[in-house]
Amino acid sequence: xxxxxxxxEDSIQKIKDEIGDEKAIIALSxxxxxxxxxxxxxxxxxxxxxxxxxxxxxxxxxxxxxxxxTFQDRLNxxxxxxxxxxLTALEGVDDPEEKRKIIGKTFIDxxxxxxxxTDAKFLVQGTIxxxxxxxxxxxxxxxxxxxxxxxxxxxxxxxxxxxxxEVREVGLLLDLPDKVVHRQPFxxxxxxxxxxxxxxxxxxxxxxxxxxxxxxxIEAAGIDKEVWQYFAVLTDTKVxxxxxxxRDFGYLAVIRIVKSxxxxxxxxxxxxxxxxxxxxxxxxxxxxxxTHVSLSISDxxxxxxxxx
Length: 308
Ligand code: XMP
Description:
Blueprint: H1 4-19, E1 24-27, H2 32-45, E2 49-55, H3 63-71, E3 76-81, H4 83-90, H5 96-116, E4 122-124, H6 129-135, E5 144-146, E6 152-156, H7 164-173, H8 178-181, H9 201-220, E7 229-243, E8 246-258, H10 273-286, E9 290-295
Helix pairs in contact: 1-2, 1-7, 2-7, 4-5, 9-10
The protein binds xanthosine-5'-monophosphate (XMP).
Xanthosine-5'-monophosphate is lined by residues 100, 185, 187-189, 193, 229, 263, 300, 304-306.
């Protein structure tokens, strides 16, 4: 790419030329790509960019607040709480691929409904180079998308030639906070791939509490900068524990921490034992529904990074 300063200047001009005085919408997830893309397009067309942040009820602890605080004063920011709609659609669903399909479809339903309320002509997408090079190598995948109302949105992909490290450089130059620019990857289907078995609000809350502890301790130990992803998984298995002199029966949670360059392969690094023990002790003492914590030591392949 051009140097990041030139890229930004050049992109802003191109976006202005392409979108002009029309309106555009973007689905903002809070991840690096959609965040950088939103801020870049906002620099070009101001509040004519409508950023839609869909809460599918599968986000991590504190995530809604973090995304809202970062963007509500900086973008034409619209928070849509669709968590009930997603959880209802997912009720009783066990199979991970089925969960993904339902989440994908519900996301499109919600987003299109919101898009239809605007008079946007353009849909901005935070596609980056590996997204299209890995999938089909097509130079331009699609140029427009039709909404249920029949309205057609033209697709704009301002960062499609950038790689992740370049996206991060651009983000920093656009004054995005370091914690946004260096955020660990988080899957689109969110905690649905980290809570095994049918989802319930209760299980999602247990997962959130455990995951928060993993994040806090890994960040406090400075390990977050060295690893690709670090999170907790809530299995659907219940195991016996002991609390005081009482038998307890609760969930088995798993700590998953991997190093990777591109997520195609990954390995579990050796980790400081005191950090792992502290995470386990905190989870079993602070999350009463969890009786047992284990550490995943499987690389990818043969395992995948996520559990589902
Ligand atoms: P796996 O589990 O396949 O994950 O080794 C590789 C990388 O992709 C992320 N991941 C997903 N991202 N939708 C996403 O947007 C998904 O359905 C999905 N599944 C996995 C995962 O977090 C890891 O970084």
